[in-house]
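Data availability (excerpt). The following record was deposited with the supplementary files.
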Amino acid sequence: MDVGIPAQVFTTRASMPYEVRVCGAAPGLVAGGDGLSYHVADGLDALTWADIVFIPGYRFPDREDPPGAVLDALVAARDRGARLAAISTGAFALAATGLLDGKRATTHWHYTRSLAAKHPLVRVDENVLFVDEGAVLTSAGAASGLDLCLHILRGDLGVAASNHAARRLVAAPYRSGGQAQYVPRSVPEPLGERFAATREWALHRLGEPLTLDALARHAAVSPRTFSRRFADDTGYTPMQWVMRARVDMARELLERSERGVEQIAADVGLGTGANLRQHFQQILGTTPSEYRRTFAQGE
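Predicted structure:
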């Protein structure tokens, strides 16, 4: 999964501006776990031109480091300007390069303490799905690697392309990097699916007033319980999530339509263009007009 997920998201197809290569320490057959093997077409020379390098997880990362040639190639790729993204225990390989020193990072929850012990200069965050430090990115287990890939795609090509990829893969279009990896409970609570239904219900009503009471009422729990569990599930308070969903909808309208900012603000439930501009700046650090110039189709 760690190898296949980036290949599926950044697929080499006419609709996507990427070329995907799978490389290893040397070309040829690479034995993997669980009875799987990979015929790797490229060696480390592929890292001399790659824009993004994904590092999959591997077994026993706390006991052994990748070959020195691999670490050197990763450092050289970063020095050249490539982004390095580790999935699951691939964070150990990235940490072994020293490129994570002084930076936040995560890995699979089972290995977070081992990563912190082996690489004490890395600020390990065990409670998130992924961490974006700009040039170096890390994610938790294999499934959160999909969240990281969609996050990168959203930054490269815009929210419409990311949503299209999520639909193609039948995946959630957006999960916050700050969402909890793993929340142990002695008794399973059947609220996750109910809250997912409430989020889906809200996504179809972003142009309408959405209050905490209305969301909790749909989920059939108290506002207090809804707020607490919603934050556990998404990494955001309910109203923060609604605001980000509205901004994401505005992003897609800016990319795919010629509607003015005032009309888009009304369509997504933000009322006025000034309100949309304010939240756009707070969440994305840019303006709707700048965003449209960057991501509008055909430009």
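Summary of structural features: Residues 4-167 form a domain with the Rossmann fold fold (CATH 3.40.50.880).
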